[in-house]
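As agreed, record copied across for absentees:
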Amino acid sequence: MKINKKRFLVAGLIMILGFTAGYAGKRLTRKDSSQVVNTTASYAFDVSDPRKLVGWADNVFFGYVDSSAGTLNVGQPVPWSLYKVTVQENIKGNLPETVTVGQEGGFSVDKNAMVLLNDDALLVPGKEYLFVTKADARGWHTLVPAFGDLPVANSRERRALSEKFNNAHTKQIPYDPKAF
């Protein structure tokens, strides 16, 4: 089999150009702020069980997200998004009228992308949620990704969530870190 050197060189050049164009395209994609990176969290207990979730939490409450209070990026593997929240109803705990809620996730300057934890969409100002949180030493209330920020679309959903989490509060299973 005779190899045509000219065709071989042209084919090689096309492959190199194709690789370079593909690589340049990927570099541009990484710089595109619409890129979403999903990371996964692991938990020390079954967060899908409302009784265990409430047993772990300091506070369970309905709240209205008033506004974003910024994003912390520096030295964080996952950014933190902070929100000002008006407390509407306490189910567990006794919070003041307004609190700051911290959510893992947000725009990462390092990655030039939106980073989400367990596909948990960022809170939306103007929306109501049922929050399950733990008091944080930094002065905010940290929510559990995907299980501690349940959106409330209407009054029927709110009643159902209220019943579910009031029942879970009554039958809560306290978190025991020694069990793990």
Notes: Residues 26 and 148 are 34 Å apart (CA to CA). The chain is about 30% helix and 35% strand. Strands lie at 36-39, 59-72, 80-92, 98-108, 113-117, 128-135, 141-143, 149-152. Residues 5-31 form the longest helix (27 residues).
